[in-house]
Specification:
The protein contains four helices and four strands; from the N terminus they run ααβαββαβ. By secondary structure, the chain is α+β, with helices and mostly antiparallel strands. It folds into two domains: 1-34; 44-130, Multidrug efflux transporter AcrB pore domain (Alpha-Beta Plaits). It is rod-shaped and about 90 Å long.
């Protein structure tokens, strides 16, 4: 006797099983939590360094490039953006989705501290902010 023969011989059983499956499916749909805008934890860390009196090329060469190099080696980074302007360097670090922001912030602070002595003495200490 095949499995399908059981339902062919007993149509009431087939209807009851179908209704149980339908009710279980409807109950599952009701209990499924869906958000219109799901929560995502995309963090951005900004490293800003002032170098008063330096033009954009000097800032890029002596501040932005060394900082970018060490920050890029940190874990959990999706991508970096940087800009160098008259007297200021800004590096924006975009972390991977739902990556531990505290771990990334700590690691970036340690990496910046490693290269701090290589920066020009006239440059102010880099300011690291979590957004």
């Amino acid at each position: 006797m095949k499995f399908t023969d059981l339902f062919v011989r007993r149509p009431v059983l087939a209807m009851v099983v179908s209704l149980v499956i339908l009710i279980a499916g409807l109950q599952s749909i009701r209990s499924l939590s869906v958000r219109q805008y799901p929560r995502s934890d995309i963090a951005v860390i900004t490293v800003t360094t002032a170098y008063v009196g330096a033009n954009a090329d000097l800032v890029r060469g002596f501040i932005t490039t060394p900082l970018e190099r060490v920050i890029a080696s940190a874990d959990g980074i999706d991508y970096l953006e940087s800009s160098s302007a008259q007297g200021v360097s800004t590096i924006t670090v975009h972390l991977k989705l739902n990556y531990d922001t505290n771990a990334a912030l700590t690691q970036i602070q340690a990496k910046v501290a490693q290269v701090r002595n290589d920066l020009p003495p006239e440059a102010q200490a880099p300011v690291i902010e979590l957004e």
